[in-house]
Each structure stands twice: as structure tokens, then as C-alpha cells.
Design brief:
Shape: globular
Order of helices and strands: HEEHHHHHHHH
Strand order of the largest sheet: 1-2
Mean pLDDT: 82
Low-confidence stretches: none
Length: about 200
């Protein structure tokens, strides 16, 4: 596999997981800190892309959201989200692949690293909420809002991500492109299809 093919594959996978994180953010249950499937998508990115590429995917997702694209929970976006109760958790998502990066050479503790990275995300989010609420909430109130409701759901999502990673072939992803825009230039479409086929000849288009 050529270097160009590897780079194309990496870019496509990063774009795929940026989209997945966005879609999972829209599946939410309203709360002070909304319950979403974002962490499931980030866990999957970390397992399938490995830590460095997953970090890039999360960073691009956050950049897109802070620029105003409605990719956060509740179809929200914009720099104002950084100064909301969710802001710390959004930034904290970066901690998950960063912690995994430290322990990536030891596959046996990848799940533990992801869980610890999630705890770091909670810590950042809790500190952020403490600043946002300006001392209005006690330490135990913050625990009840920022950490305790999420530990069990996120642990379940972590095991679901691990199960999906074990079941699906990580090296042969399937890309499905449905109803391409007619406005796309025909040559661009051909190059796009050729790039995908160079990654996996059995791709479904």
C-alpha cells in the first residue's frame, strides 16, 4: 500500500469519525450536562483509529462546533458553547485519546486507559462547571450533576465500543456513499471512488 493510499485512508477514516461523533451528539437526553452518545463515538475512534488519529478527529469535531456548525448536543454550536456548563466536557473529550496515547503500547490496558481518560474528562468538566456556576453549587452538588450520573452509562458505552471493535474488522472498513450531490464535478466523483476502491476493493458504493 502506497503512502498516498495510507494518507487517503487515514483522512477518510478521520472524516468518518468526525461525522459519527456529530451524529452521536444529536442523540441526547436533556440535562444540565446532556446525556449523549458522544463518548461512545470517541471510544470507537480511539479503538479503530488509534490515539493520535482519534485526537485529530476529536479536535476537528470541536473546531467545527466552536466555529458555529451545530454538531454539539441539541444541534447547538458556536463559541458560546465553550462558556456553557458543557464547555469543560467538550474540551475534556481531548483527554480521552491523550491518555490512551500514553498507554497505547500496552493493548492489555487500553480499556482501563480509556476509562481513566474519561475520568480526566469528568475532572475538567467539573472544574469548568465550578467556574461557570461561580460557587453557587457545593462540591456534592457538582458531583451529582457532573460525574455520578455519567459513570455507569459511560462504562456501558466503553464495553459496547470494545465489543464493536472486536466484532468489526478494523483494517477493512466499509464506506457507503448514498445519493451523491449532482452538483459535484464528475471527475471529482471518479477520483473519490478510485480513492476508496484503492483502500478496499470490496467497498459498497
Amino acid at each position: 500500500m502506497s503512502k498516498q493510499t495510507v494518507n487517503t485512508r487515514a483522512l477518510l477514516l478521520i472524516a468518518l469519525f468526525v461525522s459519527l461523533i456529530s451524529v452521536c451528539a444529536w442523540i441526547s437526553i436533556p440535562f444540565t450536562i446532556p446525556f449523549t452518545l458522544q463518548t461512545l463515538a470517541i471510544f470507537l475512534a480511539c479503538l479503530f483509529l488509534k490515539a493520535k488519529k482519534a485526537l485529530v478527529a476529536v479536535a476537528i469535531y470541536l473546531l467545527i462546533g466552536f466555529c458555529g456548525v451545530p454538531v454539539f448536543s441539541g444541534f447547538s454550536g458556536g463559541l458560546a458553547m465553550l462558556f456553557s456548563a458543557q464547555g469543560g466536557y467538550l474540551l475534556g473529550f481531548l483527554a480521552i485519546p491523550l491518555v490512551l496515547m500514553i498507554f497505547e503500547k500496552n493493548p492489555k490496558i487500553h480499556l482501563l486507559a480509556l476509562f481513566f481518560g474519561t475520568l480526566v474528562c469528568y475532572f475538567i468538566g467539573t472544574l469548568w462547571c465550578a467556574v461557570i456556576f461561580g460557587g453557587e453549587k457545593s462540591f456534592f452538588n457538582l458531583l451529582g450533576i457532573c460525574i455520578l450520573p455519567f459513570i455507569i452509562p459511560d462504562t456501558i458505552k466503553l464495553f459496547i465500543a470494545h465489543f464493536i471493535f472486536k466484532v468489526l474488522p478494523a483494517e477493512q472498513p466499509i464506506f457507503i456513499v448514498d445519493e451523491p450531490e449532482l452538483s459535484l464535478h464528475l471527475n471529482w466523483q471518479r477520483k473519490f471512488v478510485d480513492s476508496i476502491l484503492s483502500i478496499n476493493a470490496n467497498v459498497q458504493l
